[in-house]
Design a protein that fits this description.
Helix content: under 10%
Number of strands: 8
Strand content: over 45%
Radius of gyration: 14 Å
Order of helices and strands: EEEEEEHEE
Strand order of the largest sheet: 2-3-4-6-5
Distance between the termini: 32 Å
């Protein structure tokens, strides 16, 4: 299950009742295509799942900065999940070496 996305919305929470600290919703146009939850330190990562046919990934909060850099610097971007083994990704397409656009 692979979905391209072209925009996102970040929810950075301070809420002790949640096991996640950041929720990242991903969109293609106006349609939601996936979500990543960044889990607080010290809490085991839940399994990645499909929710309503869309990937729901669980990542450690320590990876949030790295994902934010990918969102800021690369396109096109994709979210994927293999339902059979639970492996999920946020990825780029094939990129040329030295293609980092910092403007």
């Amino acid at each position: 299950m692979v979905h391209e996305f072209d925009s996102y919305r970040i929810y950075y929470h301070s809420a002790p009742q949640y096991n996640w600290q950041v929720m990242l919703d991903l969109y293609q146009g106006n349609s939601a295509v996936g979500r990543a939850l960044f889990i607080k330190n010290g809490i085991p990562l839940p399994a990645n799942v499909l929710r309503d046919g869309k990937p729901l990934l669980h990542l450690p909060i320590n990876d949030f900065h790295n994902i934010l850099l990918i969102l800021a610097l690369d396109k096109p971007l994709y979210i994927s999940l293999v339902p059979g083994n639970g492996i999920g990704t946020i990825s780029t397409s094939t990129e040329a070496i030295g293609n980092l656009d910092t403007t």
